Amino acid sequence: MEMGESGMSSPPIPSGGIMHGNGNGIRHKMMMHMSFYWGNKAEILFRQWPGDQTAMYVLALLFVFVVSILVEWLSHSRLIRSSKYYSNNFTAGLIQSLLHLLRVGLAYVVMLALMSFNVGVFLAAIAGHALGFFFFASRAFNNDAASDLPPITC
């Protein structure tokens, strides 16, 4: 049993949910989904974001979509053209490492968003990766240059 602000014990947290307090001794139950679900009432990445507003939910989906495209761009682009612009291979390697850091960090943000188990977030991430691959790695635009970073493997 937990001790509440008044010193009295509060009921145990039910399985399948987390209790959030608001500082006034009032507790609200937040359900954590453990399977895919439809709906715009989700928590994606941050507590109470996007909330229950449809516009914020659409903004969250757009955010996941854009970050997925950025992951594909970083995975398949050639940002370091030639080593003649760098004094040595150490500088080029440092830039490659920073690009790898950025790519992996963004990929983890997408993964954490997917852990909301919201179907809309899942579809936004898949669409972003597919569109990013189409623009930056498919033969549709004759992109036959090698990338700076190897693709992320599953």
From TrEMBL:
Q: Which domain of life is it from?
A: Eukaryota
Q: Write the protein's name.
A: Uncharacterized protein
Q: Source species, please?
A: Bauhinia variegata
